[in-house]
Structure prediction request, 179 residues.
Amino acid sequence: MIGADWFYIVFRVFHIGAGIAWVGSVYFFVVFVQPTSAAIGPAAAPFMTELLGARRLVDRILALATVTTLAGLILYLKDMNLAGGFSDWIGTARGLVFTIGGVAAILAVALVVLGTRPGVERLLAIGRQIGQATEQGGAPPSELVAEVPILQGKLRGYARTGLGLLVAAVIAMATARYW
Prediction:
């Protein structure tokens, strides 16, 4: 029994600790950083380049998401096994709600991997190309300049969708035992 208790303690600390940092980071970015950057306009470019490029914010958030998801999956599989298998586990309200929360979190991770990360990399590459053209005294290519607001809009949408999925996951995880 003590071994099982330590198992849950260790994996819950990783799951909840990394999850708090993950959701908090996304919340702070969506609610404060993105709107502030948009309000400042082009003057925010050096800050966002430092934050997203040099500081690799997306990779850091993805690392938190990975720890959270893997620890959660281990806890999920343990509980599922104790319940007698997947069909028995998902047949309980608690198992179903944990499943919904887990799926929401996994979708949020997939959104970062498939949308946010490539979009940020493309935006940073465009920023470098525009910067090089400007340093050389020429005008940046108009197609690159036109692509920036489109990418920014997509990234804003990804971030908001990700935050919505994470809120759903948090609600599911926090309330699963009470259903």
Q: What stands out?
A: The helical segments are 2-40, 45-54, 57-83, 86-90, 93-135, 142-175. Residues 2-178 form one domain.
